[in-house]
Amino acid sequence: MNSRRHFLKGTGVALALPWLESMPALAAPANNRPPLRLATIYFSNGVEPAHWWAKGEGAAMTFGPAAEPLAPIREDLVFLRGLYHQSAFVSKSPHLGRMNLLSGAPVSLDPNDIRVGTSFDQILAKQIGGNTPLPSLVLGIEPNELRLEDGLSMLYGSAISWTSPTKPATKEIYPARALDQLVGDGKGRQLDRSILDAVLQQSTSLKPRISRGDQKKLDEYLESVRDIEKRLERASQEERLEGWRPTLKQPNLPRPADELPQDVPAHMKLMLDLIVLAFQMDKTRVVSLMLNNDLSQMNFKFLPGVRGALHLDLTHNGNAPDIEAMYLKTNQYHMRQYTYLVEKMKSIDEGGGTTLLDNSILMMSSNLLDGNTHSADEIPVLLAGGKSAGLQGGRVLNYLDKGDENRKACSLYLSLMDHMGVTLDHFGDATKRLNGLWT
Q: 270, 212, 272: which is closest to 241 by C-alpha?
């Protein structure tokens, strides 16, 4: 285990401390630097291609309408064009046959053989996951679907993270359960008590021993935990999934299977905040989050101007102008979620002049370019953060004219795994690293 991780402990609770420079005992081992983390954020059914572009560099970078919400993070962003998976491109299944985003492996079209390939995030989890309490954190918003689509299991469309070619990683869609994974110490905390109440005495005694700057950092960190607690409680009062409502003062059952939340934005924001918390606490260094399932049944009527249509229907719009306009709004909404995550991580100091974002790489992607035509000759990919690893933002990297052998998404994954400390000779359909990515 990483010796930098120290905890505030209470009954059934172990709350990891953030990076505190004024306490040498809490510094990172060996090189005194925070670890590098990786999060992959997925949104389904691609983008509106005519509106998906970026031009220029640094502060002068401009974006097409679908990507415009990325403008506040332009100097932290690498906008990638032209990457693809060959096996998805040639698949005879326009939908689920292209659900291999993080593996690049062929998707089995045999209904009796569910098989795609181990995803690169789970390869990382197996190799470096022993350094943290959780090898990886696999999150989602929509539940797994068990129905068939085109004769194939919708399990393909419900998972991007696979622990083996035949087994998807367990996806947690309940924010409260995800929070329990981050704060539990294996003894089973009282679910009707505040996490902070359980560790209040230790946090109070710690403050006189740290600098004024670290006291502020600790207060901000504890406040972020309190904020998540309050939102979970508020959601429980509204009978939403985020906040399981205890029926007893002393719970004697696991969380009941409440209905999915009706408030999609609140659900997504909670999951994004939990990613930040997981990285701050060093509970895991590998996270994936599916904002939607493939062929999503999510309803975007909460967006102004979107008239109660399912995401699937908006993306399969037949080029109808009014529906295309609503599809564009969903693209913009997904980009706002990514921007929120980047900005929040950028605001968190990790010492040594670096932020949580500097010490993390955040990838945002989808399995298709255009959900309307199911085109898989290119996938949209964004990277942010990673300055401590040499990832320089404010750039547009276009691989469309590099030739098929030099624009494989799996080449990107090989490059990312290298910087996470896992070096492979090949992965998926690639043996080369992606040129021009690192500075």
A: 270
